[in-house]
Amino acid sequence: MYYPDYASVEDPEAQQKFAEFWNYKPDPKKGLTVVEIMHAINDGKLHGLYITGENPAMSDPDLYHARQALANLKHLVVQDIFLTETVYYADVVLPASAFPEKTGTYTNTDRRVQLGRIGLNLPGDARQDLWIIQELARRVGLDWHYEGPQEVFEEMRQCMPSSAGVTWDRLEREHSVTTPLKEEGDLAMP
Q1: Spatial CA neighbour of 79 closest among 106, 55, 105, 48
Q2: Integer Cα distance of 3 and 26 in angstroms
Q3: What are the per-10-residue average pLDDT scores of the chain (190 residues)?
Q4: Contact 110, 180 (CB under 8 A)
Q5: What are 172-178's contacts with CB under 8 Å, separation 24+?
Q6: Are 98 and 81 within 8 A, CB to CB?
Q7: Exposed / middle / buried, residue 137 (Cβ in 10 Å: 0-12, 13-18, 19+)
Q8: Buried-exposed string 144-158: b where 16+ CB fall within 10 A, e elsewhere
Q9: β 176-178/112-116 pair status
């Protein structure tokens, strides 16, 4: 598993860097894969799960095993824009925001960072993803108070050398840039 910019959670230097950056002592062990999570649930080692934007009841390689695991959870929270198969196992469903219903950045596998802008109002009881995540964080004792996606993006720039040169203003002007951009004003490399 990885910290931002693919820094391994098992790398002592990365652990120290992110511990200082977030003023938090992260777990030095890598987490479980989705398949390992399902095994841990069925083995009685994991009792609650928060799933956002994923559908393991349909995407897991062993659907029977995954569905049995989801049914065995003591508490499941699902945050999604669709009523997926996984939602039917949930104790709590948080209606999320879709791509055209929020402002934020998206990074593709080709390293292109794009700025998405709100184009549609949220339907029904849906909430902005950032609002949902901050509310959950506050309720478990974290002091998260981001005014908006610009502040989250600025934090990402500060801890990700590959994106340090990408500014919100530049994204607003150019709509997208390709990283790495280590210094403001850098041109994207092919």
Answers
A1: 55
A2: 10
A3: 91 95 90 95 97 95 96 97 96 94 93 95 93 94 94 96 95 94 81
A4: no
A5: 172/115, 175/114, 175/115, 176/112, 176/113, 176/114, 176/115, 177/112, 177/113, 178/110, 178/111, 178/112, 178/113
A6: yes
A7: middle
A8: eebeebbebbeebbe
A9: antiparallel
**For residues 141 and 124, what is the distance between their CA atoms, to the nearest angstrom?**
28
Contacts of 42 (CB under 8 A, 6+ apart): 65, 68, 69, 72
Q: Which two tokens stand for residue 185?
A: 């004003």
Determine the Cα angle at 84 with ends 117 and 138, to 5°: 60
| Opening angle at CA 13, ends 9 and 15, nearest 5 | 40
Pair 92, 78: CB distance under 8 Å: yes
Place of tokens 């108070």: 145
| Residue in the block written with tokens 């998206």 | 106
Residue 49 near residue 86 (C-beta atoms within 8 A) = no
DSSP 179: S
Distant-in-sequence, close-in-space partners of 183: CB < 8 Å, separation ≥ 6: 164, 165
